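Quick illustration, no need to memorize.
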Amino acid sequence: MVAGGLCLCGLISGILCVCLAVLLWGIRLWIQQRKKQLTSGGKDGKRPLLVAFFHPYCNAGGGGERVLWCAIRTLQKKYRNVTCVVYTGDRDATGEEIVEGAFRRFNIKLTHPVKFVFLEKRYLVEASLYPHFTLLGQSLGSVFLGWEALLKCVPDIYIDSMGYAFTLPLFKYLGGCRVGCYVHYPTISTDMLSVVRNQDTRFNNAAFITSNPLFSKFKLVYYYFFAFMYGLVGSCGDVIMVNSSWTLNHILSLWRAGTCTSVVYPPCDVQTFLDIPLEEEKSTTEYSIVSISQFRPEKDHPLQIRAFAKLLKEKRLGQQPSLKLILIGGCRNQQDEERVNNLKRLCEELGVSNHVRFRINIPFEELKRHLAEATIGLHTMWNEHFGIGVVECMAAGTVILAHNSGGPKLDIVVPYEGHTTGFLAENVDNYAETMAYILSLSPEKRLEIRENARRSVHRFSDQHFEETFLLSVEPLFK
């Protein structure tokens, strides 16, 4: 009786699997038929190759968007019979306004028009929609958003340029596309698993979870399940590009697709900062220490303020030139503004308010002026996936002091031709000691380090990005 029941269950399961396979194959054929109906021939009668970028926030104006527009410009220069498509949820702007915004913010001028496919369901990938199980919620939401994109335009080549890996199998197996992706940071990393496993309190691992063994175990199981699923969908990529060695290590560990994975450093606007004259410091009566980063919790501005307070307190600078810390960053919303107010209160508690300046959402020219006058560029984010702000500080001619982890440690603040390009630290004591050491150096020695750093950042230029990007995506065009 039991054996008969098992056989029946096995038969039903087999039939369901066959039905599912037939259904998926039917959907794929229907989508291919729809593709023929939606596309038309070019001026010479040949149908252009459609290359689509999935970038729901293409009008945001950040480093990820700079990668997007540089990638499109690169393809337009290289391939004649290519039409670039951008899937976006920025319905509050027209295509012309988005392209104009890219030119205004990044000085990137496209040689040919871009086709925009406006998506209505972008809210499905908003983190605010999922107060709990955010990673899973956003990832599943991206599948539905990807389905909307696929129905509106079926490309030949699909590139996820914003980190929605769960869309890759959708476009590959149902859309019949060759698929690639540019990973700015892994949605989940082995470091995140370690934080939960060790019950460490972080901005993404609340104290009420770390203090409860049951909650920690449950979150760890959830993270392992998500990491497994993330690995499955990521391995569907035909071409995988990552922005740093740190991201590469995590993606190789999770996706296990080493043969098609390569590092393509993001294009940084280094030339703009290299135009700042680099001269030996003339005045040693005042030193400024500058930090550039959005006021988000992971940037760890409290560490900067505490280290600066310790530096002032220990009076290690001999004649004690005047010191000031300038925190430059963007506030996106009320939460960011509240975070800035908390930082100001911390300055008051530590007695350093008179030495700390907050510069919020300042114009680019003012940013350049602060960097030109700064002695030290400060960065404190743990496991920053790359660190565009670090590159900008080095290009502008500051002596960089970055966190001893992630992209800054592995790719940016590394010796160049055997010479020092900057310094790394991990905690309040390290940062205070290293800042004191940098300020104790002679102006000639600091100038030498600044010159080394400047020479090293050419690795992150637009031209270098174009070369490595084209080499990486070439298999998609064969």
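The longest strand covers residues 322-329.
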